[in-house]
């Protein structure tokens, strides 16, 4: 009986492995990061599930192609048509405002609008009036107004 008591009373202590404090901090930060990433992934999955597929009718594509054809024809005519606008001798500024949507226009017009930094409707920018900017403004004439 004495041997049993001595076994229960005097048992060897388990040594707890010592981990440096900086490693514990890193582990805790990593766990927090993983938790936030999991939350974000769950939110994104919910968002994706909730979004509906945008359905475009055939008429939309037909209308879009007609508009692009009209725009290309306008740009072709613009190349040969003389214009009465000349760049002033002295330096001057013009304020350009976008007034139309550019859905279904040629890529040249879209690039030019982007180059003028007119991303939203009724947004405006100041431009220096030079022969190059006049050419640029003639390309996007139906979609902007300037003066």
UniProtKB/TrEMBL annotation:
One of its GO terms (biological process) is maturation of LSU-rRNA from tricistronic rRNA transcript (SSU-rRNA, 5.8S rRNA, LSU-rRNA). InterPro entries: Ribo_uL30_ferredoxin-like_sf (IPR036919), Ribosomal_uL30 (IPR039699), Ribosomal_uL30_ferredoxin-like (IPR016082), Ribosomal_uL30_N_euk (IPR012988). One of its GO terms (molecular function) is structural constituent of ribosome. Residues 19-88 form the Large ribosomal subunit protein uL30 N-terminal eukaryotes domain. GO terms for cellular component: cytosolic large ribosomal subunit. It comes from the Eukaryota. Keywords: Ribonucleoprotein, Ribosomal protein. Residues 94-144 form the Large ribosomal subunit protein uL30-like ferredoxin-like fold domain. Belongs to the universal ribosomal protein uL30 family. This is Ribosomal protein L7-like 1. It comes from Moschus moschiferus (Siberian musk deer).
